[in-house]
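Hey L., structure's done. Input below.
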Amino acid sequence: MKRWITIIIGLCCSAALYGGILFSGLDLKEPGELLFKAEAESPGFGTFGTLFTADIKTRKLQQLTFFPEAVIYLRETGQLQIQNRFGVFRTDANLANIEPVSIFPSFVNGMEIQEGKIVNVTSSPDGNYLVYFKPISPAYADLVLFDLQQGKEVVLSRKLLLSYTSPGALWSGDSQFLVYTKDGTLYYYSLGQYRDGRVLAEDFRVLGKGRIENVQWSSDGWLYYVSGSLVYQVRSAEFFTRSLYSELLRIGRIIGKIPFNFDPNFDRFWISPDGKKILLDKGGRNLFLYYLSQEDYSNLSSETILPYLYLPRNTRIREVLWSKSDNIIILTGGRAKGEDSTTLFRLNLDKRDAPLYFEKMSDTGVTRIVLSQQGDKIVLVTGEGVTVREMGTWKELSSLKHPQPLSCVWKDEETLIISGMIYTEEAPLKPGNNRLIALSQPGTAGFTVDKGAVGLKTEAGSFLLENREWKRAESLTIRVPQAASSEYRVYLEKIFSYAYENMIMVRNLKGLGTNTLFPYPKKTYDPFPEKEETVDFVHFAHGSRIRAREVSLVFNAIDSVEGLNEILHTLAEYNLRATFFINGEFIRRNPDAVKEIALSGHEAGSLFYVYFDMTDSRFRVNSDFVKQGLARNEDDYFEVTGKELSLLWHAPYYAINTEIINASKDMNYTYVGRDVDPLDWVTLSDRTVSSGLYLRTPDMIERVLRLKKPGSIISIQIGQLSGTREDYLFKNLDLLVNGLMQQGYSLVPVSALIEKAR
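Output:
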C-alpha cells in the first residue's frame, strides 16, 4: 500500500513539472458571460496569458488578447497578421477588428492549444500567398501554399523535414518563384505555372543537390547557389530548361569561387544587392567577405586584402542585413555566464577610400534588426523600445519608447508596427499619436464595477473593452470575481494525462448537469507501463517506468565543440536542465565551453580522462587505471570551472565490463548507461560496415520518440564527426524536445531520474 501511495504522489509531481495549459481567472457575469484566462509556456518568450470571454449558453468563445509569437505585415492588403499557439489572427485593412483566419485552426473554433514551438507562417513579398509547414508527424511535414485571393490551399511537397526556424521556402523578390529543399535536393515552384494550371511534377523541378542554406535570392531575380567551392548564378526564367536537362546542363553560370567547400550543416552565405560580393559564414564563427570572380588563379589585385571577422565559439549569427548602399549590419548572439547577450557589427563597403573592417557598434541590448523597404533606414529593437538609424551615416533618426518590445515591422517608410509583451501599436517615426492595435496579455482582468465591461490593468496602464476595441482608461475599478450567476456555477477541475492541466467546468443550477466549457483535448498521453522494471543504481540505464513521465537528454562532449552553442540556446529557450558528460580531451581543448556548460546550470558528469574503447583487448585496463582516469578528470574540470563534477559517468563508447563498474563503484560513481540510442554517431562511411544504421535527422527523432519510455536516458553526441553526415541531430534539437513535450514528457537531469527511482 505504501508503495502505491509513493507512485501516486510521483504521478502528481510529474504533472506539476510539465508545463501544460493552465486556465484561471474565472469571472462570471449575469446571465452567463464568462471571462477567463489561459496560460501557456512559449519557448523563447516564457509563460504568457491570453484573455477570453465565453457565452456559456452557446459555448461560443471570443479571444480578447493576442500575444505576438510571430507577426507579419501583409503589405498588399494592409493587414497585420499575429500568430500564436491559440491560432492565426488578422486585422482588417485599417489595423482593427482582429479575427481568426478561417483557413487555420484556432482555439476559439475548436482547435486544441498547441504546445512547445509553433510552426511559423511566412508571406510572399507581394502578400498574396502564405507558405507554411503542416506537420504530419513529430519530425515530418507537408509544405503548403495558401492563395489568399482564391482561398485555396495547395500542397507543394509531401513529407519534408519539419522546422520551427527555417521558413520552409525562399521567395524570389517578385513573388513568382520559391525554392525549397527535400531529402538533400533543391526544388523550385513557379507561381506562373500554378496560376496557369500546369505545374510540373516535382521530379521535373529539380535545381540540384543541397539545402536552403545553399541558396540565396538577389533583389533583381537571380538565384545564387553555392556548391562545393563554386558560386553559381541562375536566372529564374531558366529554371524549367535547366531542371529538364539537369543531367546535361550545370545548374547555372559560375560567377565566383570561395576558398572552402561549403557545408550547409555549419556554413551560411549572403549575396550583395549588386550580386558582385559574397559574405561567407564558415562554421558559424568565421566571417569572410569576397568579391566574386572566376579569375582567382593569378589575380593579384588589391581586392585580395579583404575584411574578416572572427567570432567566439559561444556566438552565432542571428541576422544579416545588406542594404543597397552596400552597408552590412550583423547581429550576433551568444551565451556568456549563463545569460544571452548580443553584439552589433557594421561593414560599410561604400567607403572605397578607407580601409575595410568590421566595426563593433556601441548599440547594446539589440534583439532584432529590421531594414526599411527602401533600405536606407534600420530599426534596432532593444528591451526598452526601438531606435531608427540612417544606414549610411548611422545617425539616429528616431527613438520610440515601447515596454518590452519583441518585434517590429515597417508599415511604410515613416511608420512602424511594434509588438511587445504588453501590446502591439502603430507608431509614426515623428512624434505623434501612437495607435493601439492589440493587447498581448491580460494583466489583471475582470468586469468593471460601474459598467460591467471587460477591463484590465497592466504595468503600461489600464484598458477598457468598448465595441470590441481596447481603449486606454484613466482609471477603472474591477469587481471581485464571481463564480456563480442565477443560472450557472463555474469552477476549475484538475485533469491528468492531457496537455491541459485543468478544465473549466460549468454546472447548470437548474438541474441540467455539469459539463466542460469546451471539449477535452482529443490527444492523450501514452499510458504508463503496467509493471515496473528493475532499476540498477550501480549501472543506471534507466529510471522508474511508472512513477513519472520523465526522460533525460544526455550530451556527450568528446572533443569537438560544434553544436554546443545551439544545444545551450535550445535548452535555455525551453528552460530545461540536462546532463553533459565531458571527456578530458574536451576540457583541454575547450575550457571556455566547459565553463559555459557549468554556468548555464546544467549537470556535468565524467566521460573519462581519455577517449578510447576501454574493453579493447589491445589495452590493459585495470581498476587503478579507471580510478586514476576518473580522478584526473575531476581535477581538470575543477581547475577550469571551480566546481565539482557530479559522481555520474560512463566510459567512452559506453563500453562496460565488471572491472570498469566495480572500480567506479569504489569511488562512489554511478555508471550511467542509456536505453535509447538515436544512432547520431553513424556516418555515411559507416554504412559499409553498419548497414541500415545510418538515419537522417527526422528518422532519428522518430526513432527516439518510438523507443522512449518513462525513465529513458537518450544520448546525443556533440560535435562534427570525422566521417560525413548529411545532417546532425543537435541542429534540430527543438524538434526532439517538442516531440517529447507533445507526448507529455518532462525533461530532467539524470540525477533527478535517479532520485525519483529510489
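The longest helix spans residues 623-641. Residues 1-18 have pLDDT under 50 and may be disordered.

-- N.
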